[in-house]
Model the fold of this input.
Amino acid sequence: MDAHSILIVGDEPDMRTALIHALDGAGYSVETASSGFEALEKFKKDKFSLVITDVNMSEMSGFEVLEEIKRMSSEVPVALITANGTVDNAVEAMKKGAADYILKPFSDETIQLAVRKAIKNRNGRAKISFQNGYSRKNQKSRRIITQDPKLLNILKLAENVAQSNATILIQGESGTGKEMVASYIHHHSSQKDGPYVAVNCASLPDGLAESELFGHEKGSFTGALNRKIGKFELANHGTIVLDEISEMPMPIQAKLLRALQERIIDRVGGSRPVPIDVRIIAISNIDLKKAVKGGKFREDLYYRLNVIPITIPPLRKRRDDILLLTDHFLKKYGSSNGTRVKKMSDSAISTLLNLEWRGNVRELENTVQRAILLSDGEVILPGHLFLGEVESEGNDSVRIRPGLSVREMERKLIFMTLKDVNENRTHAAEMLGISIRTLRNKLHKYKEEGK
Done:
């Protein structure tokens, strides 16, 4: 059996030497890297059973190394080493997927035990993953369920264009499966073994969007204590998905345009441009042409993104998929709840087929999951679908009465809509005809007011 190969990452030579001494004598094959950047390059080229990284490094922190390794290969365990261990840091490390959190100074026995445990757990996870068919290769084909000719043609187009490096714009209503199509494209591309980084542009922090996307240098602004690697660099040699692209601030749109045109980015506070090799997939739940006409989106950027346009049809225009998806969700949630898979009554099926499904596949999935929980027997009836509950509850309905302010009506309407779509803010914003950023700001204001 070949020796397990371990990658050691740290900018302190003494620490690297101590780890080599502990592991070399135990029969492990050891490779070292003096920085996070060097480690990621080595990780892309070679196979490692385990990565051990120092937390505090000058260029890239151990937490950043952990996140990037997990993006490239979720199966490879990563152990963190630190001289400043706290409970909060340990909890954060485990939440991010660390296999272990080791404190300095450490003994040879401590390191060897941690390595044996991490590799043993890794082998166990790999076995379970294989037996249950959850490998990345299987996942790409089982997530998109359709028999609709139009959507099948779209998937065929997606598979064909995946081999190119062309930029792709996916548009469609909320809940139609745009993110799944983006993932489908990545896993059919020549860069399928590279990172897949998804960014929701509407969720980028105000004032920090540029730093999140393109990174920043140490000291470039107040609070920039270390260099930060942005999403574009993290996606290098892979795919970056820009969801809700219409919500990207105008100044950032200009920088994205440059990245598309010249294939370089600039870190905030950086003195040299950084070359990138990344496939860009943009996603929008609104018509970007209309956003351009309304002055909310750059026309030149729109044409740069719209090289390969893909539009996902809503569920109401592919009725044949409703029963197919319903059957899939019945099996998915029936088995996960530990009960026998339930059946839809003819009347429940008729109800499902006659609904508009403004929330598309996401709304159908929520409806089926809820019906399974509400039904006592093995057959689901129309009443179990629990549709229209908001309208039936007088206390939550928006009723006009003398003295009710427009602001209060707006607040009631927003919360009623959020309840109707199971707190999905993107879908709620679309139904209300406002941007996700506007909705978020209003909710923040309500919270401050204690409402």
Observations:
- The radius of gyration is 25 Å.
